[in-house]
Amino acid sequence: MALTTENVKMALVSLRTNKMRAFLTMLSIVVGVFSIIGAMTALGILTNGISNSLSQLGSETFTIKKFPTIQMGGAAWMKYVHRKRITYDQIKFVRSFTKLPLAVSAENTTAPLTIAYRDQKSDPQFNLTGSDDYFALNHNYTIADGRMLTREDVEYARDVCILTTDLIDRVFKNGEKPLGKTVQLNSRPYQVIGIFEKKGGGSGASQDNFALIPITNMLKYFVDKDLNSLTATVRAPSDEQMSATIDEVIGSMRAARGVKPGADNDFEVEDNSSLTLQFQSFSDYIVYAGAGISAIALIAASIGIMNIMLVSVTERTKEIGIRKALGATRASITAQFLTESVVLCLIGGVIGIFLGIALGNIVAIFMHTAVYIPYLWVIIGLLVCTFVGIVFGLYPALKAAKMDPINALRFE
User: Fold this and answer.
1) How far apart are CA 371 and CA 358, in angstroms?
2) pTM of structure
3) What's the Cα-to-Cα distance from 152 to each of 93, 146, 157, 158, rounded to whole Å?
4) Degrees (nearest 5) of the Cα angle 287, 292, 294?
5) Are 128 and 211 in contact (CB under 8 A)?
6) Cα-trace Rg, the chain
7) What is the pLDDT of residues 124-142, one digit of tens each?
């Protein structure tokens, strides 16, 4: 143990003596470890955020949309671009000709949204959502005050809205009650008829950062209804009837869109399990990219480590000769230089881990989620650094251990 401690001290002294050379050698290790730890940290935060969002949406809910939520690959994306848009009439058709769904809501979200009330005006930092009377049920929102949208609000495209807490906190700063007041949503006047209870963070920033208006009103004033594709959100009666509900809705949507028998669906059906599979496929790309960058950087670092250790052995030839003359064994000389190599790698690894976790958690700030530390990958990173230090420091260490003490003492 005393020998190991002494070797570590000697390694640190050697690194301090050649600061710039040690720094440049460690830089490749820092980049390699940083890339994989940063990627795994960001991926863990995204996974937690999406899992949280899916659990809040509910296992009985699924969506029908033109584009998949997550898609990798440009060639496949072109297939979705050429699909027909999903219209409000098609969603109303599904609602009318299906029996199993508890609720079918038409939805569309646009951004940015600026909200203003009297002398208070927000930055364009919010979202505007258009939907109908089934929105709250499908997304597990609860009305805290006032009422939800009604079918009449949707039918007549009324200028009414329901606000979430983030918008209220921004423009109602004097304790005034929003209910019944008229606010400006992107400069259009809307009467506040309801307030959603605070829901908290989810997989995007906040789940309380939007205003809800009738979908017909949104199609009339905010988007081009001839170009925009809507999303249908559907709630099944139970988990057990989820599959049957999906089949019924698919059949109805195919009929509404005129899809021929035997042809593939020209729309996406997404539920918790399909979104999870999509995200896993997406996350694989992140892992592969991080691992690839890390491998390249660590290969470069390994060559640099072997090179610096060979230079160090040459520079310290006389020191090695003196130690051998004083009785140092081959094993102790080997251990000294191996320790120096491992310490060099571990210092670079620790710096890379710290930077990866710190910068990776920037994602957590934007998603309003808890800080995440990929403990398994931290351990793997340290083990890999140790392995690199041992493997690529072994040859220089053995070369030092095999030196003839007489020749080493004569070295100038």
Assistant:
1) 9
2) 0.65
3) 18, 16, 8, 8
4) 95
5) yes
6) 31
7) 989 999 999 999 999 889 9
